[in-house]
Fold these 2 entries.
Entry 1:
Amino acid sequence: MAQDTTLLYEVNASKNLIGTVVDVKVFAGDIQKAKKSLYLAFREIERIDSLLAWQIPSSEISRINDAAGKAPVKISFETFSILKRSVQYSVLSSGIFDVTIGPLTQLWGFNGDEEPSDVPQVNKIDSCKQLVNFRNLTLNEKDTTAFLQRKGMSIDLGGIGKGYAIDRASDILKKYGFTSFLFNAGGDILVSGMKNENQKWVIGIKHPRNEGKLIGSVEIADLAIATSGDYERYFEKNSVRYHHIIDPRTGFPAIGSTSVSVVAESSEKSDALATILFITHGDSSPSAPDYLIIDANLTLHFSPKFKSKYLFVQE
């Protein structure tokens, strides 16, 4: 379907989904068609959340977690596929990205409606660490089953599920003929086309320590950018900041980075790589992504071509 480009209206919508606010901006010649398409895009995000969120008791991920150490669980091809890709990220990152991080994320409690306020006991952290190992997730291609081999293990797709949902919602808008739009789901941003015929989308990158301010901005088109930061969900105890990005090697929130932004061809990929790079500070990452890392001293570290490819402008 061809989109009318002679007169375009800017249509905006927001909804609380997948644990964050999802904002969408679409340029459309037909406002009513845009509203219908946005409704269907939000419905798609809700559908994916119903499959992948461990917080939803009826989700396929919850059923796998409930059967940990007991029996394989038959799941949809869609859920099986994202688990398979998650394991691939785990392999490529040598376990830095681990889809079985659930015991640790649940122990720290950053997935609730309110932020936690205390550090878990070290012995409990050590116990949960023993349950985190993607190699103990068995995926059977023949019957699309998933099996967590040890009781107490659990899957948490927080490092990839949001990006995947945005990719699928983007497909809905493209299906209905829209070519210029932006999704923003709590730092996971996907843009389609150009903002207008002469301008790419300008995406601001938050300053990790000055709320409401930007540290810079990039220009992109037909790409995704994800930012992981220690300012998104955190609490402070004895002047130490504890945040939601857990290093599976230590069981504690990762240290050394305050913010990491990754540009990639899909929101799923940028989401996963931002998590990996936040923990590794760029020392070890698959696929040599385009990134900006802001370290604990607020020093900016760019991948070789980031600034030139995306016209980074520092504030």
Note: Residues 31-52 form the longest helix (22 residues).
Entry 2:
Amino acid sequence: MSKIFPGRYTADVSRDFVVFIIGMRVNHWWMFHLWLPVAIAMPRMMLKLKKDKSLGLLGSEAFFRLFPLTTTLISYWDSFEHLDRFAKDKNLPHASAWAKFMKSVGSSGHVGIYHETYKVKASDFECVYGNMPKFGLASSFTHVPIQNSQDTAKARINKVKPD
């Protein structure tokens, strides 16, 4: 189990970054042969990304919902260019997984996929983690205790420096 940090924490991030959210929804659970390869592809990609830091992944958090069967992965990247390069490079695992998905599932409706991409300026976000392990941005960047001057979301979004 991850170490819990009692109290309130935030992430110290002094540069721009990218948030990428991707996932899958199983629309017809009995079509194992279509959705299982999609589900298996993501862990392989994440393993590659975590082994090779030059690819630009800073960190990630994964989530799972049982009904309807849905996965979500939130990932933090150095830049959009790193993310785009990973998606398109035929020598990396995403391009072949995408081609297989389009060939086997395509627009059949059996398996849904989604993604959202956000380019975030260092000054355009705030976060708080209360009684949590290192998580999200705080696990991808620097995990720091909240100081009195950072007590509100407004103070954090305006990047008030710690006391």
Note: The chain has two domains: 5-13+121-157, 17-120.
